[in-house]
Design a protein that fits this description.
12 helices, about 40% helix, alpha/beta, Acyl-CoA reductase, Aldehyde Dehydrogenase, Chain A, domain 2, five-stranded parallel sheet, about 15% strand, CoA_reduct_LuxC, 2 domains, globular, Ald_DH/histidinol_DH, NADP, six-stranded mixed sheet, about 350 residues
Length: about 350
């Protein structure tokens, strides 16, 4: 299959997903194979919501909107323009996917197929309904994908390389188990924000999206912020208030109540506003409904600290703090060329031998 065929197939998939990015799903009769797949995909989205309480309709449609916007001819060609796909010798790449947010492993899936390899997918039980259906859509609109996409719930066999995502504990297992295979092994990471106290209300409101989107379950969600010693939290609490309806969602509220009880019983100092707790803590990974903070004396010292801890950090949200920073509100809107853990997946896939 030629590269252009693969690009065209994913562009068509993006057009298909475009129908499902709003609360009011509207069928577009011009979409290829829509009569075969439209109603079925609506059903799969319903199953995904029923199976995983964190996969709300709002979160799923946000994901589908992002992928619909990403999968355009312009974006895909901009992404792959710097690579030489003529050197690829097709192999089978296994992907072990996480299930913390909807379609969290789709970028790896896309990367393997756009590179010309075959893919063997082992999904998380938390996110098993959406991707297999989209794979079937790809096989119908581009029949040469047939035989190149497989899903399994069994032990992985007959593969040449692996991309695996998990916790720090499972990563150690992956590193041992796949030690004889070319691999990308992803561990726990979290995202942070660096505030100076000069942020506008709009920037802080945008930061709240980085904190609360997907309930904070993604590695690109801000779980901690760094603040100057004399920081006044009033502006921050005012700006994030737009997310207060989140406390009406039972799974989030249960976590809020549980973590609040733990903090109170342990007599930890914290601030809270009825739907978010903020607590001073050295850790990067904060529980649901909690945001950690740490005070800094000097921005240069903080830069050095974050560079030292770079293997724990996915994104840094700031304004003028570092070269690779993410703008406020943009952590959950990555581009195709924004690689997880800053590891170039396409380069890895093109140089398998």
């Amino acid at each position: 299959m030629e590269l252009e065929q693969r690009i065209n197939a994913f562009v068509k998939l993006g057009a298909f997903l475009n129908q499902f990015q709003n609360n009011d799903v509207v069928k577009n009769d011009s979409i290829e194979a829509n009569d075969l797949f439209f109603d079925g995909f609506k059903h799969q989205l319903k199953l995904a919501q029923e199976h995983n309480g964190w996969f709300t309709k709002k979160n799923i449609t946000f994901t589908l909107s992002n992928w619909s916007n990403a999968l355009t001819n312009k974006n895909i060609n901009q992404w792959i323009s710097k690579y030489n796909f003529n050197i690829v010798k097709p192999q089978t790449v296994a992907i072990i996917m996480a299930g913390n947010i909807p379609l969290v492993g789709f970028h790896d899936f896309l990367s393997v197929l756009i590179s010309g390899h075959n893919v063997l997918v082992k999904q998380s039980s938390n996110d098993k309904h959406i991707l297999p259906f989209l794979a079937k859509y790809l096989e119908v609109i581009e029949p040469e994908f047939k035989g190149k996409i497989k899903f399994t719930e069994e032990k992985l066999n007959n593969f040449d390389a692996v991309i695996a995502t998990g916790s720090d504990n499972t990563a150690r297992y992956f590193e041992y188990y796949f030690k004889d295979k070319p691999s990308i092994i992803r561990k726990n990471r979290n995202s942070v924000a660096v505030l100076t106290g000069e942020e506008s209300d709009a920037e802080l409101a945008a930061l709240s999206d980085d904190i609360f989107r997907y309930y904070g379950l993604g590695c690109r969600n801000v779980s901690k912020f760094f603040i100057p010693k004399d920081y006044n939290f009033d502006a921050f609490f005012n700006a994030v208030y737009k997310w207060h309806p989140i406390i009406n969602e039972s799974k989030y509220a249960n976590n809020y109540d549980y973590n609040k009880a733990v903090y109170l019983m342990s007599e930890f100092d914290m601030l809270e506003n009825g739907f978010l707790m903020i607590k001073e803590d050295d850790s990067y990974a904060s529980p649901i409904a909690t945001l950690f903070y740490e005070k800094y004396n000097d921005l240069a010292e903080l830069q050095q600290k974050l560079e030292t801890d770079s293997d724990k950090i996915q994104c840094i949200v700031s304004n003028g703090f570092t070269a690779n920073e993410i703008a406020f509100g943009d952590t959950q809107n990555p581009q195709l060329w924004d690689y997880a853990d800053n590891v170039d997946t396409i380069d890895f896939l093109l140089h398998l031998s």
